[in-house]
């Protein structure tokens, strides 16, 4: 936002680049997001999630980009997610079990 003509960033970039930034547009999947972030961390990935109240996927993806995440993981259901490569701009559907392999491939 802007304060007296200056642009102010509310969330500075991450000091360590997250491999995955996990979001959902449906609050009923918040528990799935928490579980997926924990699973990714156990697998050795640097994973974060959004704590914003918004469910606007565009705004959540912007936050992932601001955090310089490599991948945005959008939880679509209790079993599936979309994994978006924020560097290459490609994306693919995956089961939640496949997500760790996709974000840890590099």
Please tell me about this protein's structure:
With 106 residues, this protein is an alpha/beta fold. 29% of the residues lie in helices and 26% in strands. It has three helices and seven strands, in the order βββαβαβββα. The protein is globular and about 45 Å long. The mean pLDDT is 88.
Could you give the distance between the termini?
A: 34 Å
Strand coverage percent: 25-35%
Q: Give the low-pLDDT segments.
A: none
Mean pLDDT: 88
Oligomer: single chain
- Sheet with the most strands: spatial strand order: 4-3-5-6-7
**Elements, N to C (H/E):** EEEHEHEEEH
Question: In summary, what is this structure?
Answer:
The chain is an alpha/beta fold and about 110 residues long. The protein is built from three helices and seven strands, in the order βββαβαβββα. The longest helix has 13 residues, at about 30-40.
Keywords:
alpha/beta, 5-stranded mixed beta sheet, two-stranded antiparallel sheet, 3 helices
Layout of SSEs?
Blueprint: E1 2-3, E2 6-7, E3 20-24, H1 30-42, E4 47-49, H2 57-66, E5 71-75, E6 80-85, E7 91-95, H3 96-103
Parallel strand pairs: 3-4, 3-5
Antiparallel strand pairs: 1-2, 5-6, 6-7
